[in-house]
Amino acid sequence: MRKVRLYHLIFGASLISLAALGTWWTIFFMRSVEFERKARLSQLMHASVVTALMLGHADERPETGPRDGPVPLLVEPASSFEKGDIFALAVPRYPDLGVRPDPAAIAAVEDKIARRRLMLIGEGIFMLLLLAVLSFMLYRLVIQERRHLRRMEAFVASVSHEMKTPLAGVKSLLQTLADGKVPEAEEARLLAMGLKESQRLEHMIENVLISGRLRGGRFKVERERLELKPFTESFVERRRRHLTSDRGSLELEWRAQRKEIRVLADPHALRVILDNLVDNAFKYGGAAPAVRLCVEAGNGGVEIAVEDDGIGFDPAKAEHLFAPFRRDLGPQVATQPGTGLGLSISLALARKMGGGLRAKSDGPERGSRFTLSLEEAG
Prior knowledge:
Layout: H1 6-57, H2 78-82, H3 103-178, H4 184-215, E1 224-227, H5 228-242, E2 249-254, E3 262-265, H6 267-283, E4 290-298, E5 301-308, H7 342-352, E6 356-360, E7 368-375
Parallel strand pairs: 2-4
Antiparallel strand pairs: 1-3, 4-5, 5-7, 6-7
């Protein structure tokens, strides 16, 4: 159960107060309109009586009334007004004269009052709806802020752990080498392990820096005509030497019919994207990940796909995988290192190069495929 804080109570009390105040003002103005209606009809009645008297009917008043003194007031019961008699008002009236206002003037007053009444009702409803919409939007902003804070906390914790692990390994290795306790036969293997850990740390720091520059709009992408086959071959060879698992494999599958393919891409951004995709493939590719880097060309575009036969994911979550700080591949993700930035960075860089990035899987435990689309240069 969430803890109720003081500002929650203040916010709730403010909403209730605004709703009550809006309702009260709506009722108040409705009553004001009704009073205005009665006043206008009373004025019409007075004007009709005055007109009738000025036309020479003053001498036709009955003898029963006093000739001197104020004009008597005739007040009809309130029930007649409630039944619809709009002239059952406390106004001076001579019933024997049969004086009634002009029906057109009465209709004009009723029409104007009806429009005023409808306007007030509409404004009241609109104000309440606007208050409800603003409250809902504010609630959503608060919820999103909380989610973002939780993700940021998880991100800081994961980055701290990810930085501490390789640093501790490299430090231990350097101490062991400095003490001269490493046999000569093991030096090459341990040095390779230290190099892998340092490059892993470098890659993670690079992702964090790129993410900050992308959010601040400071990351510049400079596309150039890039020969794809030499680039992918060099990339695969580098990953085989340093960053692949001893029990895994990385293969380049050139599925395009043409050997020479040029794409419009930024070499640094393309390397970052492929590093992130291959890292994910090795993390979630199973006990002995078999990762394939596939190149296909056609319809004026080039696709570079990274495939694995690992844990896969729910196809309905494909779009959500690219959200920053989110790692939603399944329960096994908790046991794997990572910061949740790789895919979001890759998608942003792909779009900056005029391409795209999409994820596909047939379901859990059925592997995954991440496809980078680039524009072919000529």
